[in-house]
What we know:
- By secondary structure, the chain is mainly alpha-helical.
- It is built from 13 helices and no strands.
- The protein has one domain.
- It has helices at about 10-25, 25-30, 35-60, 70-90, 95-105, 105-120, 125-150, 150-175, 180-205, 215-240, 245, 250-265, 270-295.
- Helix 4 runs antiparallel to helix 8.
- The longest helix has 27 residues, at about 150-175.
- The two termini are about 20 Å apart.
Amino acid sequence: MTHSSSSSSWLPYAALALGIVCLSFSAMFVRWAEAPGPITGFYRMALAALALLPLAGWRCWRECSIQPRRLLWPLIGGMATGFDLALWNTALSYTTASNATLIGNTAPLWVALAGLIFFRERLGRDFWLGLALALGGAALIMGSDFLLHPRLGIGDLMTVGTSMFYAVYFVSTGQGRKYIDPLVYTWLIALFAALTLFVINLGLGNAFTGYPPLTWLSFLGAALVSQGIGYFSMTYALGHLPASVVSPTMIGQPVVTTLLAIPLLGEIPTIFQLAGGLIALSGIYLVNQAHARASKT
């Protein structure tokens, strides 16, 4: 998919907004599902892979040639996604939806640091200021949660791990997308993530069946809304809008999740969450901008 910063159509912007909203429902589906977090993650990826199979097969039938060694990138990305979802979905049993989404979206910090260490990207003052703000805001949230409610603090710590796996997905996808069609790559990620989560659930002894109808609807919603529509919308937007527009909007997901969690989950953010969230969002914005500039040089 070619990148075009000159597109004046409203459609990419609409897709970007739709993608953020759909991804923001991820925490809702996990909470509504009466199932272990890794099981919800498995069905999210497995059903998405099943739904994408005809499209990916059609794409490969028309034009698709992948060298076996190139499969390493979606394999790494899919495994990272599997561990990411297993941890993040489980963390939602120990912390709020807004906390899990905000701290999980600190992944750009680790992506930018990986670019600095492995790809020698030059990162300026804005990056280091953003890094300090983002980590300071996240520390304020986690510290206050742990002091007031140790159960919340443990969930927050778990989401730090998810942000690191999310970063591995971003870095590996940045490499893999150079060689593999976006649609086929999306399907491979879903497939490898589903296989990873299948093994994780086997190891944990989680049951794959026996859940109530509402839980199966939540599995389907996570697969079609969050994974299908959400990721496809973001992929479409990334093909038509510049990184300077798309990257900062990543901070919109925690905001929308927090707003949705008030009526749908009855979660009212505390003053510490609001303060820490605003500080962290400011830092993530600066990091995104600095990383986007560094990637162009």
